[in-house]
């Protein structure tokens, strides 16, 4: 007796069930991936918020510590960086502190030390110049040397006045990081500056003794 065509065809429901099970498994895997990605992003966002909150608190702490020198108008505080005009600290093309500059740095020592006690950071002292080239008989070879020597002079003055030397780093940037265009005497005067900025302590530094 011949079989009907429907009897000869294999049943499709088991295959359909297997397909649905695979699709459900893929959906579960995708859902788990989405959830894990969201958890990771939430964690990174939380850490970034904490970092920003810490940075804001650090700037506020530094601003509070420097309220006296800031009120004198001899320094600025922008994004946590203390700025001092070069003319306040040095004569033109020189790296020896003027008396007024030495006095100002001594005034900065107590608030800086107070800030360092509250924050596990180092202080980078950076020297900057304008874009004018040196004369052949100048004391320094170029703006690199002048900016570096000025940063070293300020660093040594701070250390001698009581800032822990282990917290100080000096660097010179010559005329390569101007804050305004070097297109006038007034603008060049702004670019001739020294900055003192808190930075994370290098991980290679040893912990301070108890």
> Can you list the strand order of the major beta sheet?
1-2-5-3-4
Q: What is the rounded distance between the termini?
A: 100 Å
**Poorly predicted runs of 5 or more residues:** none
Name of the CATH homologous superfamily of the domain at 66-200: OmpA-like domain
User: Strand fraction band?
Assistant: 5-15%
General description of the model:
Helix 2 crosses helix 5 and helix 5 crosses helix 6. Strands 1-2-5-3-4 form a five-stranded mixed beta sheet. The longest helix has 53 residues. The protein is an alpha+beta fold and 210 residues long. The protein is built from seven helices and five strands. The protein has a domain of 135 residues: 2-Layer Sandwich (60s Ribosomal Protein L30, Chain: A), CATH 3.30.1330.60. Strand 1 and strand 2 form a beta hairpin.
